[in-house]
Design goal:
The chain is of the alpha+beta class. It folds into 3 domains: 2-130, no CATH class; 150-215, no CATH class; 219-326, ATP-grasp fold, B domain (D-amino Acid Aminotransferase, Chain A, domain 1), CATH 3.30.470. It is 31% helix and 29% strand. It is built from 10 helices and 17 strands. It has helices spanning 11-22, 79-82, 90-119, 127-130, 134-143, 157-165, 198-203, 267-279, 309-315, 319-326, and strands at 2-6, 27-31, 42-47, 50-55, 65-69, 123-124, 151-156, 170-173, 179-182, 188-191, 194-196, 207-215, 219-228, 231-237, 260-263, 284-292, 297-303. Strands 15-14-13-16-17 form a 5-stranded antiparallel β-sheet. Strands 2-1-5-6 form a 4-stranded parallel β-sheet. A hairpin with a 5-residue loop joins strand 9 and strand 10 (188-191). Helix 1 (11-22) packs across helix 10 and helix 5 packs across helix 8 (267-279). The longest helix has 30 residues, at 90-119. The chain is globular and about 65 Å long. It starts with a strand and ends with a helix.
């Protein structure tokens, strides 16, 4: 049986499941949010004779492969549970919410550990490798022979100014995942990649929250490559033709979308990327690269559970079918 661990309403999951139906394969889908209530009976029992795991009456011995797809084990607010308590302040409620999130994550780790030990390489991706650290990945990429932009993490204006003097242009980006928030007028804002110019540096305080700054690479094109089963499925994104997407292609222009076409990464770059993926113990992931105006390839990052539909459809790669067949 194939086990799919998914976020609620994830469209890519639905498309892979369509192919599993087509291939007439037995599968079970578990949505992460179900772990928080009785919709998904779950228990880990430890006795003198060993440990046993029970989940939703599934025979875990029947599982032959697992697709770990954007698992979100809790909803954003825990509203129903939090409403049962009377808190002195919103800060206290936030503290309890963080505690509940941590407890929830800890509760399902034995389940993941069991599956990875039992199935190994047929966990896509492996649970223990799915939460990558951006800086550790950049260091591993350099060790694998890939070019990466110069970067610095700092919290003082003087250090940032010195870094900026060494480069014609610099950017800042999150150390973790891209996030969003709403302003008072309900406008949705994203914390993404942004240019940091000299005026912005001049306006900064002498010390600030520790942040990542990176050399800005003049791009010819951006490349998104999906890696699965030692194969790369790559797409060129012509971001530089639009000022809105020039710095970060995720600033999508829905009225005038970027041109996206299939792209063949040179073999020597694919070999270095394969070396990196082995170093990170990843059997799948969405990789972001830049081809600069001088013809050099720069590695930016890899997301083990990154979006692949944006690569699959414009390039006719049918990645959803390939994932289903691999599972």
């Amino acid at each position: 049986m194939i086990l799919i661990l998914s976020a609620y309403l994830d469209h890519s999951t639905v498309e892979v499941i369509d192919w599993l139906f087509y291939f007439e394969k037995d599968f079970k889908r578990l949505n992460g949010y179900e772990f928080r209530d009785s919709k998904l009976p779950y228990q880990v029992v430890s006795t003198s004779t060993g440990k046993e795991i029970f989940i939703d009456n599934i025979d875990l011995n029947s599982i032959k492969s697992v697709w770990y797809r954007r698992w979100i084990p809790y909803d954003e607010s825990f509203a129903d549970t939090l409403n049962e308590f009377q808190f002195a302040s919103s800060n206290d409620a936030a503290i309890i919410k963080r505690h509940m999130v941590t407890e929830m994550r800890k509760s399902y780790r034995p389940f993941f550990a069991y599956l990875e030990q039992k199935i190994g390489s047929k966990c896509v991706p492996r649970f223990s490798s799915a939460a990558v650290d951006k800086i550790e990945v950049l260091l591993a990429a350099a060790e694998s022979g890939l070019k990466t932009p110069d970067w610095v993490i700092c919290n003082t204006k003087s250090t940032l100014a010195e870094f900026a003097r060494k480069h014609s242009s610099i950017i800042t980006k999150p150390l973790g995942e891209v996030t969003n928030y709403k302003e008072d007028n309900n406008t949705l804002k994203y914390v993404r990649t942004e240019i940091v110019d000299q005026l912005a540096i001049n306006d900064m305080p002498e010390s600030f929250f520790p942040s990542l700054f990176q050399e800005y690479i003049e791009k010819d094109i951006e490349i998104r490559s999906f890696f699965l089963e030692d194969n790369f499925y790559s797409m060129a994104i012509f971001t530089q033709l639009d000022s809105k997407t020039k710095v970060d292609f995720r600033n999508y222009n829905d009225k005038h979308p970027n041109r996206n076409v299939p792209f063949q990464i040179p073999n020597f770059i694919e070999e270095k990327l394969s070396k990196l993926m082995k170093k990170l113990d990843l059997n799948t992931g969405s990789i972001d690269l830049i081809l600069n105006t001088k013809g050099d390839f720069y590695f930016l990052e890899v997301n083990p559970v990154g979006q692949f539909g944006m690569t699959s459809k414009p390039c006719n790669y049918y990645l959803e079918k390939k994932i289903a067949k691999f599972l």
